[in-house]
UDP-glucose 6-dehydrogenase
Amino acid sequence: MKITKICCIGAGYVGGPTMAVIAQKCPDIKVTVVDLNEQRIKDWNDPNTDNIPIYEPGLSEIVAEARGRNLFFSTEVDKAIDEAEMIFISVNTPTKTYGKGKGMAADLKYIELCARQIARVAKQNKIVVEKSTLPVRTAEAIKSILDNTGNGVQFQILSNPEFLAEGTAVTDLLNPDRILIGGDTTPEGETAINALVDVYANWVTKDRILTTNVWSSELSKLTANAFLAQRISSINAMSELCEKTGADVSEVARAIGMDSRIGPKFLKASVGFGGSCFQKDILNLVYIAKTYGLNEVADYWEQVIIMNDHQKRRFSNKIVQTLYNTVADKKIAFLGWAFKKDTNDTRESAAIYVADDLINEQAKIAVYDPKVSKNKMLNDLDYLETRPSADNKDYLNAFDNAYEACKGAHAVAILTEWDEFTTYDWKKIYDSMHKPAFVFDGRNILNPKELEAIGFVYNRIGS
Ligand code: UDX
Ligand code: UDX
């Protein structure tokens, strides 16, 4: 079976870039990305592709090449479902904020809505691909909805988790370590798997395309994220011990990373991991384990989150303690608000929690982030519901450049590892600040010797 038309529901951080790359690499396939959010679709269709709603290096060029040729962004969901042979579901699956599993389980209401819509519209057989990260056995629920509410047509459900990391989405998509496709072991299931394998085979060699059963595929995604996050919490746990013992966590990371069994990646101690996936997926894993009565398994993975929360809080406590136990009315400059460099995404960013703690201490926060707007920062704080929105506005200000943000500040905190921060004239920043001038490097990106020579009191994670 050869796919000629693809529809993707959800034009977010996963759906948008993934479909742009599929369209670029498969010019014979018409790819339509749909979303309920009209503004988002409008932004994807902005004539100037630098204004598309997601910032990822290299993405705007790909959209410029494929959009209007075989890549389309639209709000006409029914039409796109109707004409496609293959439908990707890429809607968000946030942690539940209500009811059973509140704060832990994945909220599947959007997934269910998509399944019902596909069932209602489809008049021919379809392959439905789960791209969103989902609890194990969600495919079963989707299948049941499709089979019981549909028009008698056949559906095949595949699980095809996305492993791209934000900030490197385009290179990850163009050159993935592996593509994972889970499907039924029936002949129809295998035909569907092969149809999706053929799409990826346009640019990924077959030895990197792995096929499994649906549940292995679903669980592999949660497992991958849990393992990655676990490495960060492990090194962050060591960072606290390093601070007490005089060891340096960067040296420890380097030493253990050279062991080929451990490897050097994901060993960077930091103010704590953020992003839309790690916390959500681990909480989801913990919830699933608990529902099966596997309490030791649940507790084991939950500790990764507990350590991460501790690391964020430890960073804000360190700032308060170092500034003579009071930050009330002091100006603290934040460099970075995004959860990592090269993205405008702020979901679960450590910066939000650190700012929240410091505002509780009545500090004034002055933020500069190259890609995040003040509105987004305020929304992030409001979402925590710690205090009225008007108060957040009083305590947080954003600036167009770092020099302005740091002027008159008592301390500078690095929250995101944006490359440009390492290229600044730090002497100029020092001269404009209150003395003693402190730097709290939550990403260990600055050069301690250089900053200390200028006169800064320099703190980093884990030394
Ligand atoms: C992704 C994955 O899909 C999720 O499973 C993963 O774990 C986190 O990342 P992401 O692309 O980052 O989600 O989410 P987001 O940027 O919020 O995009 C989802 C889009 O789906 C939004 O634009 C939203 O408007 C759209 N949507 C949501 C629909 O079109 N229909 C719905 O019913 C729900
Ligand atoms: C992650 C997974 O890497 C990706 O495969 C999956 O599809 C989605 O979730 P993402 O959240 O986009 O991707 O970014 P990632 O690079 O994994 O970083 C997550 C967080 O961990 C960031 O806040 C980052 O700054 C932090 N991090 C990462 C560290 O603190 N130390 C490290 O060594 C690596």
